[in-house]
Design goal:
Elements lengths: L11 H10 L12 H10 L3 H10 L8 H33 L6 E2 L1 H8 L12 E4 L5 H10 L2 E3 L9 H10 L2 E6 L8 E5 L13 H7 L1 E3 L4 E3 L2 H13 L6 H13 L6 H10 L3 H15 L5 H7 L3 H16 L8 H14 L3 H8 L6 H18 L1
Parallel strand pairs: 2-5
Antiparallel strand pairs: 1-2, 3-4, 4-5, 6-7
Helix pairs in contact: 3-4, 9-10, 10-12, 12-14, 14-15, 15-16
């Protein structure tokens, strides 16, 4: 089935990008603005994917020589960057393994290590890895000794209360190599997938117990279900959704089709307050990229589409009409509206709608003292 991208009144530039992502062999010459086309590919992290498809289909002639040169340079640079990141994953995992610290590769790093062909086209802005919460500071010490420095001041962590706040409000510490033999890539060292502000629920113990280990690389990966839910949650968090994220989902659905237990996926999505996120991301992946969905989706998830549709149109608008800007009041306001539309958990929906909203600092202080009380009691 060829998706009719005209039903959303897409710009010619977006229509062309979608046709490339659908791997259509015959690409039409549309009336586009090439500068805008380059911008839209870059915004969605798809420049290398589009260029690779144009190469395979002998369609580069549709673009000017200048644009072809721009895309080729980006494509070659991306391959080199991804190879450097892959090497960096091994450097870090080896260093941590020597100190009995297990490493988990997340998102782009996982794709590059798991699907080698993806190294050609998957674009990454940083390297996301995760360690178990109890190993965080040991991992920081190890990486510091190996030439990595933190990009934030962590001295305040000497105060236990501030440390508790930090662990709940933040989910990663950015690092960068300060030696010439380390690729100039920001490394985000995670101890949890999301902070409490994501309003989803995750058990790090469960994530690690289900994770898959690759002995050859000494790295763990989330299992296929947790990977799907992580990607869905990441794309819907603060409306930070891009087309490359849908390609990630499509890659998993096609490559791990036989490994996905759809009943377990739906169960975890409900437990983790991600059900409507899951419905909308799968729906967009199917409609935009022609990715086949199994009968389980039609039977168990499609009935939720009407309930999820307000969030679906929000995501669609963010993908093709309103690009994300950096932390503007408008973005924050839209995120709050989106969250209230998207919650699949009654109590979380009620919390966002209640008139008696408790300020976050007060709520965090209350949670901290409750946690300390329970710890002392136990």
């Amino acid at each position: 089935m060829i998706f009719n991208s005209n039903i959303f009144n897409f710009k010619p530039e977006d229509q062309f990008i979608i046709k490339c992502l659908q791997y259509q062999p015959n690409l039409p010459k549309l009336n586009w603005d090439e500068d805008l086309l380059i911008h839209r590919m870059a915004y969605h992290g798809l420049t290398s994917m589009v260029y690779h498809h144009l190469l395979k289909t002998d369609s580069l002639c549709l673009l000017s020589a200048k644009t072809q040169a721009t895309l080729k340079a980006h494509y070659q640079l991306n391959i080199g960057r991804n190879l450097a990141i892959s090497h960096l994953v091994k450097q870090i995992s080896n260093a941590l393994e020597e100190n009995d610290i297990e490493t988990m590769a997340l998102k782009g790093a996982m794709f590059i290590e798991t699907f080698p062909d993806y190294t050609l086209v998957r674009e990454m802005s940083d390297l996301d890895i995760m360690v178990k919460p109890q190993n965080l500071y040991k991992a920081l010490d190890v990486l510091s000794q190996r030439g990595f420095e933190g990009l934030v001041d962590l001295s305040f962590l000497e105060n236990k209360r501030k440390q508790w706040y930090f662990h709940n409000l933040v989910n990663a510490i950015p690092l960068r190599g300060k030696q010439g033999n380390i690729p100039n890539v920001i490394v985000e060292l995670h101890w949890q997938l999301f902070s409490i502000d994501s309003y989803t629920t995750w058990s790090e113990n469960d994530l690690w117990s289900r994770a898959k280990c690759c002995p050859e690389q000494g790295v763990y990966y989330l299992d296929c279900i947790d990977t799907i839910l992580h990607l869905c949650g990441h794309q819907c968090k603060n409306l930070q959704i891009y087309l490359y994220g849908l390609v990630d989902i499509a890659t998993i659905l096609r490559s791990w089709e036989k490994e996905i237990d759809w009943h377990e996926l739906i169960r975890r999505a409900k437990t983790q307050r991600l059900l409507l996120h899951l419905v909308n991301i799968l729906r967009l992946t199917s409609e935009l990229l022609n990715t086949p969905l199994p009968q389980e989706y039609l039977t168990y998830l499609q009935p939720y589409e009407e309930q999820a549709s307000p969030g679906y149109y929000f995501l669609l608008e963010r993908l093709f009409q309103k690009e994300l800007t950096e932390s503007t009041p408008e973005d924050l306001s839209l995120s709050k509206v989106f969250r209230s539309l998207e919650y699949s958990n009654f109590w979380e929906h009620l919390w966002t709608q209640t008139k008696l909203i408790v300020p976050r600092p007060v709520r965090l202080r209350l949670n901290y003292h409750i946690g300390r009380h329970l710890q002392d009691y136990n």
